[in-house]
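Q: How would the structure tokens look for this protein?
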Amino acid sequence: MTNGITNMAGSVPEWCAMAIELLGIAIITVIAIYALVHAGIRLVKGDALSDIQQQVRQQLGRGILLGLEFLIAADIIHTVAVELTFENVGVLALVVLIRTFLSFTLELELTGKWPWQQAGSETKNGADN
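A: Here is the predicted structure in token form.
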């Protein structure tokens, strides 16, 4: 009886990590499909191709950023709650480092600013008004 409860409790974090990972993948997929469908509609309406391309890049970038956040959360849950070993913690650190770098570069690509520059520039802009 205790063995079954231990196995069941051990699988709950695995299921949570998998669910969050699937949610991250679904977010990226849904936003990519939405961006492409919306671009097709705008193309049929005759909007400028450069405007459509810019909007698709913005939408895809935002979707990837949001999806990456969920994927990082799933990796953390899996490593901490499921398989806590020094090797897995090292792999997690590398994965988080790579995904954080991707998030920063995507933010720079989308906004033209590093994430930490936005708060300061918004404050300055608010003070000028």
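Helices lie at 2-45, 49-82, 86-111, 115-128.

The mean pLDDT is 81.

Upvote if useful.
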